[in-house]
Amino acid sequence: MRNGVLATSLKSDPRLVYVILLLVITVPLLTHSAVAVPISPTTLALYQFIQNLPANSLVVESFDYATSVVPELHPQAIVVTQQLFLRPLKVLFVALDPNGPPLADAVLDTVNKGNKTYGVDYANLGFIPNSATLIGMPLSISEFLPLDTHNNPTASLPIIKEFPAIKLASLVITFDDDSSAAYSYVQYWEGRYNIPVAVGATATVAPGLMPLYSSGQLVGLLFSIRAAAEYEELLSQQYHCCLGISGASASMVALSASHLLIVAMVVFANAAYFIGRRTSRRNK
Amino acid sequence: MSSDKKKMTRGELGLQVIIFGLGFFYAIVYYVAVPGIVDLQAVSDQLLAYITAVLTAAFAIGVINLTRVHYFNIKRKRATWRYSIILLVSLFSMLVFSVIASPFALDPNAAVIPAGVIQFSTPIWDFLYYKVLVNINSSIFSLLAFFIASAAYRAFRARSLESTILLVAGLLVVLGQAPIADLIWPGFSIIRDWIMAFPNTAGQRGILIGAALGIVVFSVRRMIRYPW
To answer: Do A123 and A54 share a structural domain?
Structure first.
């Protein structure tokens, strides 16, 4: 009976659900609780791919997400960029979303760049405005993106002199909020020039990219903020650093608690539904 | 059925020829190479650039239209005219500061715009972008969690065999996604990975192939102007 009353009140007034969820999320965040995160195979695949890249390989990071998914994708971008800067690799930052260039700057402000120099080891080339640029960049970077975000001519940058065309890249990683960038890179760069592609995606988008991962068209796939926490764990194990750099590990208890709450509420609602149905059948 | 088909005007016929020609061109360009005569792929790439130009123009028209609508809202003091003021001020202040001080600044080296103006504008743009826009958009997106929680409680019912399978699979993926669940039973992660790698991939492939076939059918119908 009490079960039925609670179920009815939860159903009639969703604010109770909202308050419970708010508490479940905020309390672990405020108490800085932590939990060990098991490593997913899709995350491990990208981490190991980057670790196995030869020294001085070129990696392209593409910031293809809007500001609305910053809490989910920004931590991924931070930890992957940190790994790239911990290795002797060259990195180019681009964006298929106009929000990308300032978000790339924010990531660069967060990570430890070590002794890497702008223009020599990395550069922010800014926004790729159209498909023609995306298609042309594998043949010539400076022809299609003549200026970087600091207004330097890209042709004058040492990194571009060393790698004048994207077809020389060993990996492109897109942080993608709607899978369109992932499909563009697979279609134009992986399909035509065999440049390996990896994707960091939100929890809602990543399952839709599994066919690309299963077919080998993606060398790695990061699922939501959890993948960022897994990455922090991997970096911590190998380099003894970076735990907490993106804030992802700190949010894992809140993530777990909110997931468990949703599962508990669904189970509870179904139990109340079946009990109610049996009771009404008996009364008839 | 054919009686429903109206006779085309000369303009419609011309448009139809363009649609058919471009559609046919894009369909064959991946399969046909004419080395030495014309690089069809390059022509296709160039056409994509024109599409971007058209879309950019459409975006500019959107800004003009938005300004026009809200300007008349304010001028005629319609019911929500105060919000129109906020919208226009937000739109144009962000536009101005972005043009002066952002990764898209027109004159970052202060060749024309005075350096003092850029120095003054930079912290304002940083504040508007990183502290206002990012947080507002993230907050709105995070509301999704509350709606999902409420919807999950209200709508997920094991009413039939199909819905029960969907419910159980969904709950197992949600549990597998929660790191703490592995402390309860490590099998949750393994089950989640299996569901993602096999049933999910199979389903997603089915959706992709179905959508692709649907696009092909729709495109052919549009190209030959099939009446239904």
So the answer is: yes
